[in-house]
């Protein structure tokens, strides 16, 4: 039962969807902070008076609706970067390492492939034998040969 659960969780698409969801949640926080702290005060600004701090007061002093709060926005950016760093180093890197040991490439460039001359299936470019039809593959062209002498 635990093996089945582990196999389900370790499927590439489940991890990809989970990471995508986490990125979307973190990004939504960033967008919400930008909207609440930057866009809303610009829209609500009725008077051109401004004071400087970690933000600008665009209306009457003390009116939170017209305060352009750059501090909250910078905080959201820092939160997003830290959160994505944690996701990357705690989820993506270990998962990539585990999948690499299983012979699967995830979250990166796919290895170069070539078509098998016999069955036309995609196989790794460095393959000497096709895993589908077991036919011998020609050596990669452009390689150097060592000569004696």
From TrEMBL:
It is a multi-pass membrane protein. The lineage of its organism: Bacteria, Bacillati, Actinomycetota, Actinomycetes, Mycobacteriales. It is found in: Membrane. The keyword Metal-binding does not apply. Keywords: Membrane, Transmembrane, Transmembrane helix. This is Mechanosensitive ion channel protein MscL. It comes from the Bacteria. The chain crosses the membrane at residues 72-93.
């Amino acid at each position: 039962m635990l093996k089945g659960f582990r196999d389900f969780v370790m499927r590439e698409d489940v991890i990809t969807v989970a990471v995508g969801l986490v990125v979307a949640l973190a990004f939504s926080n960033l967008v919400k902070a930008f909207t609440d702290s930057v866009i809303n005060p610009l829209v609500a600004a009725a008077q051109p008076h401004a004071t400087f701090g970690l933000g600008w007061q665009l209306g009457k002093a003390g009116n939170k609706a017209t305060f352009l709060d750059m501090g909250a926005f910078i905080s959201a950016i820092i939160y997003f970067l830290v959160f994505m760093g944690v996701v990357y180093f705690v989820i993506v890197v270990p998962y990539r390492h585990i999948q690499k040991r299983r012979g699967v490439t995830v979250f990166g460039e796919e290895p170069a492939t070539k078509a098998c001359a016999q069955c036309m299936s995609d196989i790794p470019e460095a393959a000497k034998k096709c895993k589908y039809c077991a036919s011998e593959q020609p050596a990669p062209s452009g390689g150097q040969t060592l000569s004696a002498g």
